[in-house]
Amino acid sequence: MLRLIATSLCLRCQSAAALSLHIRPCATLIPAENQQTVEALYDLSVDIQKVRKLNSWVLHQSPAYTKEVADLLKDLGASGPVIARILTVHPEAVLCQPEQMQTQRELWMSVCPKHKELVGIIENFPASFFTSSSHHDNQRNNITFFQSLNLNKRIITKLMASAPLSFSRPVEQNEVMVRTLQQAYQELGGEEANMKIWLQKLLSQNPFVLLKPPEVLRENLLFLRDKGFSTAELLHLLSKLRGFVTELNPDSMRRTLAYSQDTIGCSEAELRHIVLNCPAVLYYPEDILAERFKGLLSVGISMSQIKETPTVLELTTQIVNYRIQRLRVHGYDVRTGSLEVLNGTKKDFEMSYGKLHLRSERPIFNPVAPLKVDD
């Protein structure tokens, strides 16, 4: 009996040993962290725990060029805390080869020569600066193309930072889209003298317009033309939509326009007037519009008021309720007054609110009342 038990235990030990031999190689599949990289990042006060949590794979790569990245940023004038923030958010930067970083520096400085501004861009858009070397030729060609349009350097810099994909692709694709925008502007009656400013404004407001197929712009303009908008009105919309006309499509616009017309109870001509004043009606989905109509009506605002000031639909229900409460303190009733006071950004509202506040506190001057004078 004892011999049987001993034999059984031996077999189990052999099985466990064999199993451990099979498991051990699996555990070594994950390479150890590159201690030089970890120590270099520690020395730069980088949040290693955050890097391990979000981009741990970077710490296992070799070679890494942490010192070279830090030296380049220091040479541009970046402070220690700024370097730490950049490498915490985008530790992949340490994998860029020194020659690659130097090329990027030269490319960026051709449109952004001031070191302080370039450091600010790298801090906010590190992935746009520390990019693949395979894109350098495309970047160079695209920079040359946009410079040939006499665009402001700040606009080109903003495009490179916020929409890097538009610079990493072949220049021919950007040429086609820019040409399409220019043709649309001219066909809608835009003045040649103002085209550069118009294009700069559109690209700065929505850099991603370059990444959209040119056909989308043509289809959307054709749909709006069929809805009765004149060429002048289409140019107005194209400018006011800030390039987001390429984010739309005929089907979604058809649904939102039908919903808005049915909810407001207006004619097609009135609907066009509403859209010209509040282009957001074109791209808000029905559920968002339904929520905002419901919120406005629930506080006593009439549909005729909304029709008169449709831009109030651009505000969330929460913002509308907050602003109404503040206005009520000074005796302003939006149910009987204009909704214009609700409109605009937070800064715009604060200015309107401040005027109402001063008006309510200002004493009424009585020209026949005796003046109080000291004896």
TrEMBL record:
InterPro entries, per database record: MTERF, MTERF_sf
SMART domains: Mterf
Keywords: Signal, Transit peptide
Signal sequence, start to end: 1-18
Similarity field: Belongs to the mTERF family.
Protein name: Mitochondrial transcription termination factor 2
Organism encoding this protein: Pagothenia borchgrevinki
